[in-house]
């Protein structure tokens, strides 16, 4: 499938955008422009099985892949507050591409999380100037990838069930454990590295175009200098190293809410133009049907509340980013509780909206040509990433006992 080109005739070979945004509001507007392009044939592309190379090209052309990159290297120089809004806007049109963008931005930030200051500078310059698109092979539910130390190089061996971004990525973040130790090592390698094999086996009901299939890692080599956060083969830990979970969980929150908003707005358009009032009602127009009015009012209020919580938590997280080298365990733990609350609420609201819209659409809207089911399939698929009950538990234990969650792969 191809992304429908909405540009005027004769402009197909020209760049869609000539200048880059400079403010947060302009970047969010740019994301909505991207979303409008993706929305045109979103239903058809959801049914396709091709890797989303054109969608990634669109993200690169728009500048969204380097929104967090330093401005001096051509990046957007924006904060995570803006990035989350951008993810939400893109996901409203296409949940798969919203997820790809969100995961990419986390891995783009990986050097900041665990790298040395020298590595951070080098990686962010290279990633921004070359518009790298990141994938990651870091599924913690699988066995650890084993790393062997071969002097100046380290060698990764193993496999991962999921590797979001795989075939459409330029670089891939690998993670494994040094043989005979409990030392975890992250490194960024080219996605076309010898021994790195992405398998075309992602066949799930939702988020169909996220390139999240399995990967085999067979003697993938990289220099010790690529080992994030290591100097002379020794790692110097800091609390900020553990912020990858709050960041990615808030990525989840925002593309869930983006999908929910896309579902609600698309459904409202259909209701305005197509839905009919029930034959036993006392009105002639669906827009005057009291049950439909109540439905949209209820779902919209819930969405607004969840979005407001997500935005507030993003503001709190930004303060941690600004104090990355001094953040305390207590500050990190309190923030994780807030992220957990936002994740629990976003999950429940997104599932309710993406299934509930059908009450305001009518039976004819279940025709596969409309593709309304894609919103629910996308949310239902990804919200199983980690059980939402455990997020509520983090919040509940903190409220009752003051306990703060300890950093794990999921908290």
UniProtKB/TrEMBL annotation:
Give the matching InterPro entries: Acyl-CoA_DH_C, Acyl-CoA_Oxase/DH_mid-dom_sf, AcylCo_DH-like_C, AcylCoA_DH/ox_N, AcylCoA_DH/ox_N_sf, AcylCoA_DH/oxidase_NM_dom_sf
Keywords associated with the record: Oxidoreductase
Q: Which SUPFAM superfamilies match?
A: Acyl-CoA dehydrogenase C-terminal domain-like, Acyl-CoA dehydrogenase NM domain-like
Domain (Acyl-CoA dehydrogenase C-terminal): residue spans on this chain:
251-385
Residues in Acyl-CoA dehydrogenase/oxidase N-terminal domain copies: 42-120
Q: Which domain of life is it from?
A: Bacteria
Protein name in UniProt: Alkylation response protein AidB-like acyl-CoA dehydrogenase
């Amino acid at each position: 499938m191809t992304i429908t080109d909405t540009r005027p005739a004769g402009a197909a070979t020209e760049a869609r955008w000539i200048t880059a945004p400079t403010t947060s509001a302009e970047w969010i507007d740019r994301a909505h422009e991207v979303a409008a392009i993706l929305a045109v044939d979103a239903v058809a592309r959801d049914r396709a099985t091709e890797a989303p190379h054109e969608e990634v090209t669109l993200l690169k052309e728009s500048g969204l892949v380097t929104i967090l990159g330093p401005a001096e290297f051509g990046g957007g120089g924006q904060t995570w507050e803006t990035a989350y809004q951008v993810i939400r806007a893109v996901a409203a049109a296409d949940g798969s591409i919203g997820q790809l963008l969100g995961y990419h931005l986390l891995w783009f930030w990986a050097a900041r999380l665990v790298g040395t200051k020298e590595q951070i500078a080098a990686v962010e310059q290279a990633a921004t100037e070359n518009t790298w698109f990141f994938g990651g092979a870091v599924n913690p539910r699988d066995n650890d990838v084993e790393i062997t130390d071969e002097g100046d190089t380290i060698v990764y061996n193993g496999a991962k069930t999921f590797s979001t971004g795989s075939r459409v990525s330029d670089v891939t973040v690998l993670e494994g454990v040094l043989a005979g130790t409990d030392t975890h090592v992250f490194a960024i390698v080219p996605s076309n590295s010898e021994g790195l094999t992405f398998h075309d086996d992602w066949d799930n009901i939702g988020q169909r175009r996220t390139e999240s299939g399995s990967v085999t890692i067979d003697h993938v080599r990289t220099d010790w200098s690529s080992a994030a956060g290591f100097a002379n083969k020794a790692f110097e830990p800091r609390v900020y190293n553990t912020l990858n979970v709050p960041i990615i969980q808030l990525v989840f929150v925002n593309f869930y809410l983006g999908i929910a908003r896309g579902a609600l707005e698309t459904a409202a358009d259909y209701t305005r133009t197509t839905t009919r009032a029930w034959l036993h009602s006392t009105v002639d127009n669906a827009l005057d049907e009291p049950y439909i009015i109540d439905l949209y009012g209820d779902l919209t209020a819930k969405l607004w509340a969840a979005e407001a919580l997500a935005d507030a938590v993003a503001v709190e997280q930004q303060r941690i980013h600004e104090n990355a080298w001094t953040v305390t365990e207590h500050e990190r733990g309190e923030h994780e509780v807030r992220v957990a609350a936002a994740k629990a609420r976003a999950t429940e609201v997104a599932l309710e909206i993406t299934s509930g819209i059908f009450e305001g659409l009518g039976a004819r809207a279940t025709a596969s040509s409309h593709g309304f089911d894609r919103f629910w399939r996308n949310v239902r698929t990804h919200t199983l990433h980690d059980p939402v009950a455990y997020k509520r538990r983090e919040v509940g234990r903190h409220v009752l006992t003051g306990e703060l969650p300890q950093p794990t792969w999921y908290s």
